[in-house]
């Protein structure tokens, strides 16, 4: 709150600040991280990941995740860049209801190539990838939650977005949304997240009800 004196009058100006990284919460906080100029940089925890049961036969839930909680419908977006080194090094957005229900999407480094990667978990995990022939210096990942679905998009310029996955996620339930990175097979890598933003979207069912009950 800022106070401004105009003659004998006192004008109080209330400033509203957007959600900042400093206000967010760590789940599995890494040893080394920094927030500066609306960017999060971290050394990703070695031997960490998010995965449940299927194909590999194990469950892990121990990678760094910096999150804030949103209800209803929203759009989340972030710019990511990483110094990927080992197989399965990964980073991106994560939307998480609990340990059995989450979506993570971003870049995953596999067999020397960059892959646009999405893991959807409902008790067990699945994995879908789009292999990139070129190595991008940075990628934008966007997630749009509408009703019981999440649409995942990627972009190389923050202008032209292409859908990479449409996945189910239970609606009418609060969601932890934020920045995730994992290093299942290596000794850690440097990851940077920039310009993270979550934008509220009006609930479509409520808008339809209001329209029908004018």
From TrEMBL:
GO molecular function, one term: hydrolase activity, hydrolyzing O-glycosyl compounds
One Pfam family per UniProt: DUF1349
InterPro entries in the record: ConA-like_dom_sf, DUF1349, UCP022704
GO biological process: carbohydrate metabolic process
Protein name: Regulation of enolase protein 1, concanavalin A-like superfamily
């Amino acid at each position: 709150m800022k106070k401004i004196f105009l003659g004998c009058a006192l004008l109080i100006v209330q400033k509203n600040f957007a959600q900042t990284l400093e206000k967010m919460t760590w789940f599995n906080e890494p040893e080394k991280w920094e927030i500066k100029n609306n960017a999060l940089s971290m050394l990703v925890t070695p031997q960490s990941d998010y995965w449940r049961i299927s194909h590999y036969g194990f469950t892990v839930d121990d990678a760094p995740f910096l999150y804030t909680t949103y209800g209803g419908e929203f759009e989340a977006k972030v710019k990511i860049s990483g110094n990927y080194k080992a197989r399965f090094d990964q980073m991106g957005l994560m939307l998480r209801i609990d340990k059995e229900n989450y979506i993570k999407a971003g870049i995953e480094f596999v067999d020397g190539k960059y892959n646009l990667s999405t893991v959807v978990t409902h008790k067990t995990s699945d994995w879908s990838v789009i292999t990139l022939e070129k190595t991008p210096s940075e990628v934008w990942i966007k997630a749009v939650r509408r009703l019981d679905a999440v649409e995942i998009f990627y972009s190389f310029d923050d202008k032209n977005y292409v859908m990479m996955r449409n996945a189910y996620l239970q609606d009418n339930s609060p969601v932890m949304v934020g920045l995730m990175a994992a290093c299942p097979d290596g000794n850690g890598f440097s990851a940077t997240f920039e310009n993270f933003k979550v934008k509220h979207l009006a609930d479509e069912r409520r808008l339809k009800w209001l329209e029908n009950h004018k």
